[in-house]
């Protein structure tokens, strides 16, 4: 039984011979590279914030620092404007990251309290 042509992608032109498909592949490859870089940068950021959380726990500092968060949000909004990125999107992204960092810091502090009480 031969394959149903309606279920297969358009094959009359290969990606190499169709400039639009070749450009699409090039752009997608760039997006994939950027996504990988974002993941690696986020991982490094969280490694640093884990150290901050440990330091805060040892020094009995609160997990959250609202004044720093406010400064960081405004700084990121300005960076977004400079980069022609929607500042509201940048703020939402940073707020999500900050919530996750605070959650980690709270867990580190709770763990430190349990260890010192034990």
Short description:
With 118 residues, the protein is mainly α.
Task: List descriptors.
118 residues, mainly alpha, 3 helices, 75% helix, elongated
Task: Write the topology of this structure.
Layout: H1 19-58, H2 66-82, H3 87-117
What this model shows, in words?
The mean pLDDT is 89. 75% of the residues lie in helices and 0% in strands. The protein has 118 residues and is an all-alpha fold. The chain starts with 18 loop residues before the first helix and ends with a helix. It has three helices and no strands. Helix 1 (19-58) runs parallel beside helix 3 and helix 2 packs antiparallel against helix 3.
Shape: elongated
Helix/strand-derived class?
mainly alpha
Order of helices and strands: HHH
Total of helices: 3
> Which runs of at least 5 residues are low in confidence (pLDDT < 50)?
none
Main beta-sheet strand count, sense and barrel state: none
Summed over residues and divided by their number, the pLDDT gives a mean of 89
Helical proportion, percent range: over 70%
Compute the CA-based radius of gyration: 23 Å
Measured by DSSP, the beta-strand proportion falls in under 5%
- Overall number of strands: 0
For the record, give the distance between the C-alpha atoms at the N and C termini, rounded to a whole number: 70 Å
